[in-house]
Write a structure and sequence with these properties.
CATH architecture of the largest domain: 3-Layer(aba) Sandwich
Shape: globular
Largest sheet: 7 strands, mixed
Radius of gyration: 21 Å
Low-confidence stretches: 54-68
CATH topology of the largest domain: Rossmann fold
CATH superfamily of the largest domain: Glycogen Phosphorylase B
Number of strands: 13
CATH class of the largest domain: Alpha Beta
Number of domains: 2
Helix content: 40-55%
Mean pLDDT: 90
Structural class: alpha/beta
Strand order of the largest sheet: 3-2-1-4-5-6-7
Number of helices: 15
Length: 370
């Protein structure tokens, strides 16, 4: 049985995009019994940790708050990786930058997007510096690069100038046992009777200021009927966003980070899901909302049209008036909503984590046999 090591450090935090991807793909790979897996958590282990049971400790919160502490932690993790004397047949780095100390005959790297190059303002300075210093020297070591949209594949080819055969597109999936249409809506917090919903980290990239401004421009009678509910952990550079949320607390409700089960039920209860992100390498929330039977408005840029297909309404994320008009159009047209729900449910069925894992396994075998 071939030995594979996986960087699983993102599993030590709350399950956001990259963490969810690693968790879902690895879970299916384990169930396949195709490989002998080891995991790097800052130490080597053969245990696959369920991050739903990992607490976000006070120490971790302090580290995440200060850039110099993040730099120290990264240096420690790189340092400790060098103490690993084992050599593996394949190292899968699911999060951009491989650790130099992990030794393997073959290397596969997953690249989620190029926002750290193309949209530096979307990231803290410390993160941009880390990527600039470590991404490019390492990416050319990879035998194969996995990405999650043809949009990102084109960026990889344009920016890295590498052989197209080395780049594999594998769409993300959705957990249809979790993100589905529910009849039971028990949750531990209060929601408005009707609401527009958006999920994403509270930071510039998700264009929450654009959504808030668009929502504020809606007629008062619409805002009275449909409140705006936001979910997501507090990212960085979010003072202006939080100020605007707080100033509009009559209509805007911020729930913070909630569990996956709660998230699925909030999708179900929402009248409309709006995701006007400036830039995505895939756009998992769009897929989750469709799977829950919620009409979706999303941006007409980057990878998002690949996810939404013809099942969603598109807006220009740079045009607040267009976002407002699309929200008004969908809310005022029940026939359109019903059509979007049907198309969304059908579209979501095309994406499964099982299919994504099978494609990863296929790539792993091809690289190991080459």
């Amino acid at each position: 049985m071939k030995k594979i090591i996986i960087n699983a450090i993102p599993l030590l935090s709350k399950k956001t995009g990259v963490g969810r991807y690693i968790y879902e793909i690895t879970k299916s790979i384990i169930n396949s019994n195709e490989f002998k897996l080891s995991f790097y958590y800052g130490y080597i282990s053969e245990e696959f940790l369920d991050n739903s049971k990992i607490q976000n400790t006070f120490l971790k919160k302090i580290i995440l708050k200060f850039d110099f502490l993040k730099r120290i932690v990264r240096k420690i993790l790189i340092f400790y990786s060098r103490f690993n004397k084992k050599k593996y047949e394949l190292y899968w780095e699911p999060n951009f930058i491989p650790y130099k100390g992990i030794k393997a005959d073959k290397l596969i790297i997953s690249v989620h997007d190029f926002s750290f190059i193309l949209y530096k303002d979307f990231h803290p300075k410390e993160r941009v510096e880390y990527f600039e210093n470590n991404f490019f020297p390492n990416i050319y070591r990879s035998d194969v690069i996995i990405c999650f949209s043809y949009f990102t594949k084109k960026e990889i080819l344009d920016i890295l100038k590498i052989d197209e055969k080395k780049v594999k597109v594998i769409y993300h999936g959705v957990d249809h046992n979790l993100f589905k249409v529910y009849n039971d809506f028990n949750i531990n917090f209060t929601l408005p009777k009707k609401f527009i919903f958006c999920v994403g980290s509270i930071e510039p990239r998700k264009n929450l200021l654009g959504l808030l401004n668009a929502y504020n421009q809606l007629d008062e009678n619409i805002k009275e009927k449909y409140k705006l509910v936001l979910v997501g952990f507090k990212g960085w550079n979010n003072d202006s966003i939080m100020d605007m949320i707080n100033k509009n607390n009559k209509y805007v409700h911020y729930l913070g980070f909630i569990s996956d089960k709660e998230l699925a039920k909030v999708y179900n209860l929402a009248s409309l899901f709006v995701y006007p992100s400036f830039y995505e390498g895939f756009g998992l929330p769009v897929l989750e909302a469709m799977a829950c039977g919620t009409p979706v408005i999303t941006s007409n840029v980057s990878s998002l049209p690949e996810v939404g297909g013809d099942a969603v309404v598109y807006c220009n994320p740079y045009d607040v008036v267009d976002i407002k008009n699309k929200i008004k159009m969908v809310l005022n047209n029940e026939n359109l909503q019903e059509e979007m729900i049907k198309k969304g449910l059908k579209r979501a069925q095309e994406f499964t984590w099982e299919k994504a894992a099978e494609e990863h396994i296929k790539v792993f075998k091809e690289v190991l046999d080459s």
